[in-house]
Amino acid sequence: MSSDTDSEAQEKLIDLAAEFYDQMDRGEIPEMSIPTRTKSNIVFDEDEDVWVYGERESTRSANSIRGARKLLKAIYTIEFLDNQLEEDRSSTLRELYYLSESWDSNEAQFSDQDESNQLIEDLEIVSDVRREDFHMRPEESGAKVMGPLLLREQTRRGDREIHCQKDVGQGGYQIPNNPDTIEFLENDAEFVLAVETGGMRDRLVENGFDDEHDAIVVHLGGQPARATRRLTKRFHDELGLPVTVFTDGDPWSYRIYGSVAYGSIKSAHLSEYLATPEAKFIGVQPEDIVEYDLPTDPLSDSDINALESELEDPRFQTDYWEEQIELQLDIGKKSEQQALASHGLDFVTETYLPERLSEMGVL
């Protein structure tokens, strides 16, 4: 199932390796420059409402033993990726780490998976090719979609047409590693509801929320994988669907919303590909905790520090978020999505979500 995208990825990888060769041929010490991947070099693009890398760069140079090892590992990895694309195969990030054990140079082997993961990210940045186009996969995220959508997915066994309600079980349609292999054929959806927890996702599906309100329910599975964020963005950009995000009511969950809407620091080089700045936050809001008298847990010291940090975060510097975060710090409490069940199993689908979605102009 080799494609033009595969050929382009191969060409850019070979160009990278050729640049090292050309540098040596000119009598220069080989080097590779990439944006400095530290928090201090991440800037919030106010025009695009996403995180991007700043102008500072770091140089990986062979003028030191440590730098030479990094470039050696890069060259071995480029060769591996080129062969993988040539053979139309794929591998996981975890497999790459173990595969390096078989390379004929001990110096090229990775010391841990963080090192191999980071190198793949480096190659993404300098080649301007996404790891999905290198045929590199993360471990399974398990994220699922349920809703009134007919799609066509490219697979090794040919194209498959799948309706994300009629052709799937209660578990829903599993998002593939590369959502750009999906073609949208037909849909009757009115909006996308991205849900943090599996328990809440199951509640919505069991109660028929997707059917009753023509919603595409996306399970984020905690901090969402790249594939989940990419597909969510495609729903918005290509189908014109409003995107809403429903999480727990704590600072870590607000960051899940932030990664869907504005991108994450770790994947700043892909924000325009992954982030959906128009996404709206449903809740659980701190004001919901008060209004519905939800069961709560006290804020921990780390929760408080995270909330105070969010007050300084450009993503949350709006009147709405400042009001909600200040309220949460004032009441000193947090609450989970499932706490809404204290008002009955149907409360979330019959009352809470319809009311919130109406307030937001989605329903």
TrEMBL record:
<feature type="domain" description="Type II DNA topoisomerase VI subunit A all-beta">
    <location>
        <begin position="139"/>
        <end position="188"/>
    </location>
</feature>
<dbReference type="InterPro" id="IPR002815">
    <property type="entry name" value="Spo11/TopoVI_A"/>
</dbReference>
<dbReference type="GO" id="GO:0003677">
    <property type="term" value="F:DNA binding"/>
</dbReference>
<dbReference type="GO" id="GO:0006260">
    <property type="term" value="P:DNA replication"/>
</dbReference>
<comment type="function">
    <text>Relaxes both positive and negative superturns and exhibits a strong decatenase activity.</text>
</comment>
<dbReference type="GO" id="GO:0005694">
    <property type="term" value="C:chromosome"/>
</dbReference>
<dbReference type="Pfam" id="PF20768">
    <property type="entry name" value="Topo_VI_alpha"/>
</dbReference>
<feature type="domain" description="Spo11/DNA topoisomerase VI subunit A N-terminal">
    <location>
        <begin position="69"/>
        <end position="135"/>
    </location>
</feature>
<keyword id="KW-0479">Metal-binding</keyword>
<dbReference type="GO" id="GO:0000287">
    <property type="term" value="F:magnesium ion binding"/>
</dbReference>
<keyword id="KW-0413">Isomerase</keyword>
<feature type="active site" description="O-(5'-phospho-DNA)-tyrosine intermediate">
    <location>
        <position position="98"/>
    </location>
</feature>
<feature type="binding site">
    <location>
        <position position="196"/>
    </location>
    <ligand>
        <name>Mg(2+)</name>
    </ligand>
</feature>
<keyword id="KW-0547">Nucleotide-binding</keyword>
<dbReference type="GO" id="GO:0003918">
    <property type="term" value="F:DNA topoisomerase type II (double strand cut, ATP-hydrolyzing) activity"/>
</dbReference>
<dbReference type="InterPro" id="IPR013049">
    <property type="entry name" value="Spo11/TopoVI_A_N"/>
</dbReference>
<dbReference type="Pfam" id="PF21180">
    <property type="entry name" value="TOP6A-Spo11_Toprim"/>
</dbReference>
<keyword id="KW-0799">Topoisomerase</keyword>
<dbReference type="InterPro" id="IPR004085">
    <property type="entry name" value="TopoVI_A"/>
</dbReference>
<dbReference type="InterPro" id="IPR036388">
    <property type="entry name" value="WH-like_DNA-bd_sf"/>
</dbReference>
<feature type="domain" description="Topoisomerase 6 subunit A/Spo11 TOPRIM">
    <location>
        <begin position="191"/>
        <end position="357"/>
    </location>
</feature>
<dbReference type="GO" id="GO:0006265">
    <property type="term" value="P:DNA topological change"/>
</dbReference>
<keyword id="KW-0238">DNA-binding</keyword>
<dbReference type="InterPro" id="IPR034136">
    <property type="entry name" value="TOPRIM_Topo6A/Spo11"/>
</dbReference>
<dbReference type="InterPro" id="IPR049333">
    <property type="entry name" value="Topo_VI_alpha"/>
</dbReference>
<keyword id="KW-0460">Magnesium</keyword>
<dbReference type="Pfam" id="PF04406">
    <property type="entry name" value="TP6A_N"/>
</dbReference>
<comment type="subunit">
    <text>Homodimer. Heterotetramer of two Top6A and two Top6B chains.</text>
</comment>
<comment type="similarity">
    <text>Belongs to the TOP6A family.</text>
</comment>
<protein>
    <recommendedName>
        <fullName>Type 2 DNA topoisomerase 6 subunit A</fullName>
        <ecNumber>5.6.2.2</ecNumber>
    </recommendedName>
</protein>
<feature type="binding site">
    <location>
        <position position="248"/>
    </location>
    <ligand>
        <name>Mg(2+)</name>
    </ligand>
</feature>
<keyword id="KW-0067">ATP-binding</keyword>
<dbReference type="GO" id="GO:0005524">
    <property type="term" value="F:ATP binding"/>
</dbReference>
<dbReference type="InterPro" id="IPR036078">
    <property type="entry name" value="Spo11/TopoVI_A_sf"/>
</dbReference>
